[in-house]
Amino acid sequence: MAQGKGGLGGIVAGETAICTVGKAGHGLNYRGYDIEELADKSNFEEVAYLLLYGELPDKAKFKAFRERLKSHRGLPAPLRAILERVPAMAHPMDVLRTGCSALGCLEAESAFDQQQEIAERLLGALPSMLLYWHRFHRDGVQLETLTNHDSLASQFLFLLHDCEPDELQRRAMDVSLILYAEHEFNASTFAARVAASTLSDFYSCITAAIGTLRGPLHGGANEAAMELISRFERPDEVEPALRAALAAKEKIMGFGHRVYKKMDPRSPIIKTWSKQLADAVGDSRYFPVSETIEAFMVREKNIYPNLDFYSASTYHFMDIPVSLYTPIFVCSRITGWAAHVFEQRANNALIRPSADYVGPDERPYVPMSQR
Ligand code: COA
């Protein structure tokens, strides 16, 4: 194998002007802006604009952008019909993958100069698809997804719970969306760039990314982390169970990272929101259990939580079903994926690496009658 370890770790696979991961400072910035500052002072729509268009918007551009996103929340009737036929038992990531692909048939990209409009369309429509399907199968309602909420955070919680979200929950969701928006050449973004490099259409790039994000070693880790946390009623149950899991060589979901070998800079930020929500709902189980898991992993393995770990309890305290955790990641990361598709297309080269061959030496074909 060429330099680097398995899975292309340590290999530089291209250039990007969108994001840095694991560099000096806090280690993560979007187009030069530190993630801590964005999570503290900005909002998701502003960050989405920054990622898609390269600069922070002024007031007029921001207002127009938000209005366009609102107008993109409606779903065409054939797509609603498809969503109603996707089974209730389907995984919501499969629903998003299907919905994105279906929209690509209904509103196909006929030229690359439509890419920004399609990115905005998906940013508006993906949460609508998810929640239309979810509420149709959970409550038998045909949701009106065109609402007047200014933010995705507020829209999402409103469509899910059928009531206006309180301010703490709205802001926690907003920060979570900021943190999930972009992360350089992670697996799903790379999948999107590979698809883009073949000059495929925008929807195909995003469909490839959604399928790649689904796995538990990537986006699916937030759901797997909640499954782990929920196993414990009390903090004192954590240590023996984790010792046994590690002895069996199991991965502890929501911990470790390919690039960050110490702290994922997003983790302490989402942890503070998990704590605030835990206090607000009077939790005495999930947050203490989560902190005990974290302390154990750092003490015993020197492995730190990534963004997915405390995102799990944050969403739990907002009463969000576990199967919607990774789809929320999609609703945010569409911004980063889109920015990478634009960047790939702007300076394209087909992504097609080589492999070291380890199979049999050349040999003659033997007809079936002689085998
Ligand atoms: N639990 C237990 N051990 C872990 C671990 C975890 N979550 N993450 C890494 N390790 C251990 C590995 O077992 C390995 O140990 P070894 O050298 O004794 O075999 C070592 O740390 C290196 O791990 P490796 O999986 O080779 O590193 P990677 O860079 O390929 O992995 C992840 C990165 C994210 C795939 C990995 O940390 C992981 O699977 N984490 C859990 C899933 C998760 O949270 N994914 C979301 C990522 S944002």
Summarize the structure.
The protein is mostly helical and 371 residues long. Helix content is 57%, strand content 2%. It folds into two domains: 16-219 and 321-346, Citrate Synthase, domain 1; 221-317, Cytochrome p450-Terp, domain 2 (Orthogonal Bundle), CATH 1.10.230.
The average pLDDT score comes to 95
Low-confidence stretches: none
Helical content (DSSP H or I, runs of 4+): 55-70%
Rounded to the nearest angstrom, the radius of gyration is 22 Å
Backbone structural class: mainly alpha
The CATH architecture designation of the largest domain is: Orthogonal Bundle
Tell me the number of helical segments per DSSP (H or I, 4 or more residues long): 16
Bound molecules: coenzyme A
- Write down how many β-strands occur, each being a DSSP E stretch of 2 or more residues: 3
Would you state the CATH class of the largest domain? Mainly Alpha
Question: Order of helices and strands, N to C?
Answer: EEEHHHHHHHHHHHHHHHH
Strand-residue fraction?
under 5%
Strand order of the largest sheet: 1-2-3
Question: At the third CATH level, what is the topology name of the largest domain?
Answer: Citrate Synthase, domain 1
For the record, what is the CATH homologous superfamily label of the largest domain?
Citrate Synthase, domain 1
What gap, in angstroms, lies between the N and C termini? Answer: 34 Å
Give the overall shape, derived from the CA principal axes: globular
Largest sheet: 3 strands, antiparallel
- Estimate nothing, just give the exact number of structural domains: 2
